[in-house]
Amino acid sequence: MPKKYHLRPIVAFLLILVIFFLALFFICSSDFKEFNEMLKTPIILTIIVIAIITAVGYLLFPDFSANLVKMIIEKQVRDACVSENPTQDNVVPYTPESIKKIEKTERNPDLKTKKLGQKDKKFNDELKELIDNGKYEVALEKINNDLHSNNIDEVTARLSQDIVYFSFPDKSQQKDILDNLIALLALPEVKQQPLLKYATLGRLFQWYFKNNDYLNAISVSNQLISIFMASKILNNEQHFYIYYTRALLCERMKDNILAIAYYKEAAKYQENDYFVIYSIACIYTYALANVNKAIDYLQQLMIKTTDDKTLEGHAINTYAYCMAYSGDFQGAYDAIENFLRTNPDASSEVVIALKAKKSYIAFKLGKEEESFSLANQVLAIKPKDDTSINVLSMFKLKEKNYKAVIEYTSSIIPFFEKEFSQNSMAGYYLGEIFYNRGVAYMELNEKQKAKEDFEMANKLNFDEMSACTIIKASITNVK
Q1: In principle, which of 41, 144, 152, 360 could form an S-S bond with 156, CB 3.0–4.6 Å?
Q2: Three-state DSSP class for residue 434
Q3: pTM surpassing 0.90?
């Protein structure tokens, strides 16, 4: 097969040579004799020889040369990633879906048992049976007995204890987990085996992450990245885990731009990157309040599929939230309607959240009968659902039941204020609630309270306030 030459690098190389020789010629004041003498100097001769060798190398081995340049560039980028050291300021809570994802990736007793099974299958089968039956204390006792009887070595014992500790249903063994993992990493056998060290560090990272010790988690993450750089035996799932966990750390510490970069890198190692794209969309929605970017990523999910219908439901809910915020209530309504119609077996939690959102959007679209019905359906299952209570407050305002409006809105303002503290986009909805309560106060002739609520709505950039209402409140004798 003939070699594949790329014309662009060759042309660029020739242009550089021409520019180089022209520069030398002008340095020599356009004197050919001086120019000829300069070409014979050791430095210039060395540069010319290196250039010729590089050119010949590319012509003879184009693919190898391209890969070599790519490897050098990637190494510089990866070294920069390893040297990052975020601080622990401004820590915020993370979504349950992400915690479940990291647990699913890292916590896999069956996989770990298979690795140990090469040494003693009988021991591992018995250990797995004890764990499956919830006999954790008996399992730990068996490990200690087999270790003292020399039936298993210390590495096998430590790994087995790790499996048992992580399987405990309560949190009473947290200190034992940490001590065991640190002892395991100190064993020479673990230090010498990259995969074993990688698995142990992954467990240690999970411990620090779940216990909010982010500085130590960063240190472990750097070690995982170092193993990744030095080893060529890690599979795609392990590559994904390294970048994904680093993205979680960056997001926890509000380094959102870097978190997005790591998420994008993690996506390269997943066949189905649905969850990663959703994670990026959530950053743009709830952390950066960039609704246009959020919608761009969420629309990518509209043409993807996932077996996790709960995750898909959360993505649809976020998409509807962004579409409604941007004023496209019909687009938000259609997205929820399509999901509820095609996924009747979705989890009740997702269905409740989507119906509540749909109730609000239906009211905005003038579908009042449907909106009222959905709000009551949700409240029958979840009596304190804030979105549905907000919908009912809007109905009460329309009915001129102002005392009920004040009661309903006052009960949900603390929830929306908390949401606003974590997501500035929630300010629109909070502003609307303050405005509606202000209208109710004004109609009940509580002008000072009305004015205060209107001022809050204005500060929150709620731009749908009635000019007549504001003027009516301002011309009263308010002291």
Answers
A1: 152
A2: helix
A3: no
